[in-house]
């Protein structure tokens, strides 16, 4: 009886397992889902849109026209004066009488504007004092000429902060003289055809400037004193004329019978820079043989350009009766455009008593 029960139980287990196996075989095989390959999008270009009735083709921008080069307008002398020199009041001079009146009555802050034309005779500015904020300025456009045979063309005597701009002085015995003048400026002036020196700064004149100017054909009557710019006074004429801190900048000096720039003993501490100098008419009578001759002390002589000297182009010289002079000057960056005659140096390096001078 027991054996029969066991056999029945085993048969039941077999039948249940067989039914489960058949149910599994009857289910369909599940395949994994395949994702479609994603293609990268192509960028949209103008060819995809245009031509199209909905998206009209835009007009291509026209190139910006290149402006044709135009010549810069040259600044007039009056515009230069107004932009460069302070002023409070404008005074106009249309003839020689009005100019003399304006010069004699000038006050600090006045700008005297001179009408172009020829003004005959000598003109003077005496005892006039401007200041750093209100200088006195004489502004003369191109074509304003002082024609002064046998006399000084323009004299600045005991003046302070006076500017002279643009004027031309010709045929004078001496072109422009500064006597006991302080902090005055000669700017863009022209001095030509003088009997003796072109511009003379003397009698304890201090801290004046000559710049951007043209000086030519000086010494037509007295060649030995036909300097272009003359600083100080010879000790043979004036005892110890001490002129301090004067500047000679960016000028063109040609055709002088004596030195284009002559610095006298006892003048000191000035600057001579950026000038063009031509000694083709030097007279050699007897000392006019160089372009810059420094007999004073403490000058900076730099970046000047010269041609046609007889001996050294740039040098110092000692005066026998002026002890302690021609010292402590600095020569730097000066050029000689032509050969120096007689195998002499472009810049002389003196020995002896001329001590403390430096040459670069």
Q: Helical content, roughly?
A: 10-25%
Write the CATH fold name of the domain at 173-359: Pectate Lyase C-like
Strand order of the largest sheet: 1-2-5-8-11-14-17-20-23-26-28
Number of helices: 4
Rg over alpha carbons: 46 Å
CATH superfamily of the domain at 173-359: Single-stranded right-handed beta-helix, Pectin lyase-like
In whole angstroms, the N-to-C terminal distance is 140 Å
CATH class of the domain at 173-359: Mainly Beta
Shape: extended
Find the structural class using helix and strand composition: alpha/beta
Q: How much strand? A: 25-35%
Tell me the major beta sheet.
11 strands, parallel
Q: What's the mean pLDDT score?
A: 86
Poorly predicted spans: 44-55
How many extended strands? Answer: 28
CATH-defined architecture of the domain at 173-359: 3 Solenoid
Structure description:
- The chain has 360 residues and is α/β, with parallel strands linked by helices.
- It is 13% helix and 28% strand.
- The chain has four helices and 28 strands.
- The radius of gyration is 46 Å and the shape is extended.
